Amino acid sequence: MAATEADAEPTKVLEFGLGDGTYCLDIGVIDEIVDAGELTRIPNSPDHVEGVMDLRGRTTTIVDPKTLFEIDEEGPRERIVVFDDSEIDEGGTVGWMVDEVFQVRDVAPEDVDQSTTVEDEGVRGIVKSDDRFVVWVSPDVDDELAAELGDVEAAEA
Question: What domains lie within the chain, and their CATH numbers?
Answer without folding.
Answer: 10-156 (2.40.50.180)
